[in-house]
Each structure stands twice: as structure tokens, then as C-alpha cells.
Amino acid sequence: MKAPEDMRLRLSIAVAMCFVFSLTLGACARAKDTASNAEASTSASAAPVQTAADSSNSSADPTAVPSFNSARSMQYVKEIVAFGPRPIGSINHKKVEEYIQSHLKGDEVEDDSFTIDTSEGKFPVHNIIAKYPGTKDGIIVIASHYDTNYPLRNTAYIGANDGASSSALLLEIANQLRGKKRAGYSVWLLWDDAEEAIKLPWTDDNSVYGVRHLAQKWQGDGTAKKIKAFLLEDMIGDADLNIEHEQNSTPWLEDMIYQAATRVGYQSHFFARLIPMEDDHLPLMKLGVPSADLIDFDYGYDNVFWHTTQDTIDKLSPKSLQIVGTVTLETAQMLDKK
Ligand SMILES: [Zn+2]
Predict the structure, then answer these.
(1) Which of 4, 34, 106, 149 has the fewest CB neighbours in a 10 Å radius?
(2) Which range is least confidently modeled, 26-30, 125-129, 250-254?
């Protein structure tokens, strides 16, 4: 994914201002404490909301706050990064495809395979879509790319946060959806491929190959009209989790995500900053499909770990996976009732 060119400058200024402020007043640390306290008190006071939701929730699982196994999803992150770098066209990429598919045995899975012709040559691309039926006519798509950055293919770059965290999140969401019909829309989990730019700089034409292909297909076969929301997960494992208020996303869907985060007591991790991102959601946005990018684009000081060999599992936290997983499932339940 890509942020606007002036993002780094603006980020640096914001961080520098906070640093100066904290030197003089120690306010930033206190502000963070206050946020944690607010989260704790909101969690406690969220109980009546959950009870109210319980009574109106007709899903097979009556629990208002969706369950999410953070330890198991973290184990999936470990197993994915253990394959090493997973750029398109590599043996490791093939191994991850097989790894994802091995977790979806017995599920309805669509393989969307094709070849792309790029400035760096031809590559096979493989989107994997697992479909879980619901009682309502319509589809919620939850997506994550699983390839690692191609220009970094000859380094030790393993994309623990960028690619692995969100792909692991979807594997755990699959566990939550499997074996029961949702009392709501169908959910399609999409592990999409070739998100990363094949060559720098990132352009609309040399990136997001997998989702661009699907958007065209879904427009042609009528699927796009049935998609109620496209929820994209990207870089969601950072232990210091701050999901962006993403400016290119659909405003009402962003509002709903924040409401969902508030209902489950995790809103202090959401929307502290408003920034536009170019990511896998844009091809769907262009078709008029309501879409949102759940992304934390402040990964280490000034996003310093992003697209470096420092993107390793020690920077991640199972708690962050739980926060994003729970809020995503809560958002899906809110969409069901919309
Ligand atoms: Zn990336």
C-alpha cells in the first residue's frame, strides 16, 4: 500500500511536536494513560450495550461480542513468516498458498488464478476466496493480501505485519465462521495476491493486481452489486495499534467501524489520525462498493519498520489481532442489521 508523498513529512512534524510537548510537560505519556483508562471504563460500561445486542442478535452464536482466539491467530502469523520471503513467483509463495488452502479443507473455496504480464516478467497470481453462507441476500468481503514485497525479494524481508498478520487474522475468522450458517449476509474471506508494487515507485498499474482482477470479474458477473461491504485488513498486528481513519474509504462504513470499536471497548485504538491510503480497497471503491481499509500505517517510530527487514514478529501482539478481529466481526454483525 502507499500513502501520499507528503505523509512522511507530516508524520515527522507530528511526532516531533509530540516529542517536544512531552519533554516540556510529559503530556504525551499521560495522554496515553488516560486513553487506556478510558478504554477500561468503556469496556466496563459496555456491558448493557452487549445485553441489548444479545436480545436482538439472532445469530447461531448468541454472544454479542464476537469471540476471537488471539493465541491461535498469532500461531498462524508465526507459521506464515516461517516460510520466509513470499514474493509472487517464488516457491515460498506457493507454500503459503498451500498453507492457507490446507486450513480451508471442507469449506467452499474458489481459486481465482491468472497470469500477469509486468515490467519484471510474467507471474502467476492466485486469489483464494472462502465462502461462508448467510441467511440474507448479500455478501460481506473481508480481505488481506498474502504476498510479500517483490522489490525486497532478495533480502530477509518476511512481512510479519505487512501480509502475514492480516492473512492470519482471516484464518482465525474462518474458524469462527465455519460450520454454521450466519444469521446475516454471507461472508467471503479473500486472501488476495500481488498487492505489492512489482517495481518502485508504486503506481495504479503496477500494484494491487489480484483485487483489480477480481473487481473486473465481479463487475462482469454481477457479484459487485451484491457486496454490502469490502473490509480490508492490512498491517493490523503492530503491538502499538492505531488503526487509521482512512480518508479514501466509504465514510458511513468508517463510522460503523468506529461504532463497532466503541461497542466492544476498543475505540482508543481507532481513528486518532485521518490519512488517505492507496490499497487493495480502491478497485472496489471505484465500482461503488462500500469499502474500508483497516490499516495501521505508523509501524515503529515514523513507520520505520514498514517494508524493511525489521518487519518481524517481535513487533506484533496477539492483543492487536484480537482487537481488529473482534471489531471486524462486530462490524459484520452491524452490517447484517443495516
Ligand atoms: Zn507492503
Answers:
(1) 106
(2) 26-30
Q: Phi then psi for 244, rounded to 5 degrees?
A: -75, 150
pLDDT at 32: 29
Say how far apart CA 128 and CA 191 lie, in whole Å.
5
- Does 1 reside within a domain? no
Amino acid at 79: E
The answer to whether 239 touches 169, Cβ cutoff 8 Å, is no
pLDDT band at 168 (very low <50, low <70, confident <90, very high): very high
CA of 197 to the centre of ligand 1 (A): 8
Expressed in angstroms and rounded, the spacing between residue 155 Cα and the centre of ligand 1 is: 14
**256 alpha carbon to ligand 1 midpoint, in Å?**
26
CA of 86 to the centre of ligand 1 (A): 12
Whether 22 is in a domain gets the answer yes
Residue ranges of the alpha helices (H) in 26-151? 27-45, 47-56, 70-81, 91-102
Distance 27 CA to ligand 1 centre (A): 33
Q: Is residue 2 part of a domain?
A: no
- Distance from the CA of 307 to the center of ligand 1, in angstroms? 6
| Domain that includes residue 176, residue range | 7-337
Asked if residue 76 has pLDDT above 70, the reply is yes
Asked if residue 36 lies in contact with residue 268, where contact means CB atoms within 8 angstroms, the answer is yes
Q: Domain holding 148: CATH number?
A: 3.40.630.10
Centroid of ligand 1 to alpha carbon of 235 (angstroms): 8
How many other C-beta atoms are found inside a 10 Å radius of the C-beta of residue 69? 16
pLDDT of 95 higher than 80: yes
CA 2 to ligand 1 center in whole angstroms: 8
Tally of domains in the chain: 1
For ligand 1, the distance from its centroid to the CA atom of residue 202, given in whole angstroms, is: 10
pLDDT of residue 64: 66
Gap from CA of 162 to ligand 1 centroid (Å): 5
245 or 21, which is more confident: 245
Looking at the domain assignment, is residue 222 inside a domain?
yes
Residue percentage of the chain with pLDDT more than 90: 80
